[in-house]
């Protein structure tokens, strides 16, 4: 039986790479994003030509009505949700020192990154608890956070706070849902080559060449997608709340 995966923000970058890996593994992919589907037509075309089933819903995870409509539509169409990947996220529109940043920027970033992830997970988890277990699992949830959840960047405080909050959500939902046979994990990317990092390429080029990064290259969206699939494929059946760093060794060996 074909399984169903939701990927938030799956139209480009890390999200698109995750979608590609999921459909190649036989999943149908259900995506929610704020832009019209036409924006991603070229990205989706080769996947659909190869038989991938992609359902796209235009909406914002920051809006309760959009979340509810989307999740209900997925369940109505496909009967169940096997995987949720919380990937959607934004950076501040303008990087400002923590002494200068605004309430509007804080609300914008946390509204999508943290509140949206919190309540999208809640809606999907409620649906998962009502479905039968397959292969010992009712569902798998993977949160895409960042090494910014622990690494300080005072010129984008709202982003760091939002990602730290996602790390706590991983713990909370892993704790609450383990008894429901729903397992929750987290992938923390480091410096990944995406639209979000394109504006600071020179800065990150210098950092990646330094001693703090044992692997001296940019991370790729595919690196993150491969990590997600470790959890999706059930390779760690006796783990929940697990955090996997995809950061060139920065978090785990930089103190050596």
Order of helices and strands: EHEHEHEHEHEHHEH
Tell me the span between the first and last alpha carbons: 47 Å
Global geometry: globular
- The neighbouring-strand order within the major sheet is 3-2-1-4-5-6-7
Amount of beta strand: 5-15%
Number of DSSP strand runs: 7
Helix content: 40-55%
Describe the structure concisely.
The chain has 256 residues and is an alpha/beta fold. 43% of the residues lie in helices and 15% in strands. Strand 5 (139-144), helix 5 and strand 6 (182-189) form a beta-alpha-beta unit.
Features:
single chain; 256 residues; alpha/beta; seven-stranded parallel β-sheet; 15% strand; globular
Task: Explain this structure.
The protein is α/β, with parallel strands linked by helices. It is 43% helix and 15% strand. It has helices at residues 13-24, 41-49, 64-78, 103-129, 157-177, 201-209, 221-232, 250-253, and strands spanning 4-8, 28-33, 54-58, 83-86, 139-144, 182-189, 243-246. Strands 3-2-1-4-5-6-7 form a seven-stranded parallel sheet, sandwiched between helices. Helix 4 (103-129) links the parallel strand 4 and strand 5. The longest helix is centred in the middle third of the chain and has 27 residues, at 103-129. The mean pLDDT is 94.
């Amino acid at each position: 039986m074909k399984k169903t995966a939701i990927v938030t923000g799956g139209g480009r970058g890390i999200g698109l790479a995750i979608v590609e890996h999921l459909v190649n593994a036989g999943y149908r992919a259900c995506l929610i994003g704020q832009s019209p589907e036409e924006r991603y037509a070229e990205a989706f075309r080769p996947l659909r030509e190869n038989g991938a089933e992609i359902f796209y819903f235009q909406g914002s995870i920051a809006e309760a009505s959009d979340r509810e409509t989307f999740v209900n539509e997925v369940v109505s169409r496909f009967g169940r949700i096997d995987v949720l990947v919380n990937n959607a996220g934004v950076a501040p529109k303008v990087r400002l020192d923590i002494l200068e940043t605004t309430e509007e920027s804080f609300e914008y970033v946390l509204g999508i990154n943290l509140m949206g992830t919190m309540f999208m997970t809640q809606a999907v988890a409620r649906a998962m608890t009502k479905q039968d277990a397959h292969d010992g699992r009712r569902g798998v949830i993977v949160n895409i956070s960042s090494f910014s959840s622990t690494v300080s960047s005072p010129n984008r405080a709202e982003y760091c706070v939002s990602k730290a909050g996602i790390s706590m959500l991983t713990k909370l939902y892993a704790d609450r849902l383990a008894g429901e046979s729903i397992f929750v994990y987290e992938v923390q990317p480091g410096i990944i080559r995406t639209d979000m990092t394109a504006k600071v390429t020179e800065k990150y080029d210098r950092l990646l060449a330094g001693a703090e990064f044992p692997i001296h290259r940019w991370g790729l969206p595919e690196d993150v997608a491969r990590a997600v699939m470790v959890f999706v494929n059930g390779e760690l059946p006796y783990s929940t709340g697990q955090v996997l760093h995809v950061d060139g060794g920065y978090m785990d060996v930089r103190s050596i």
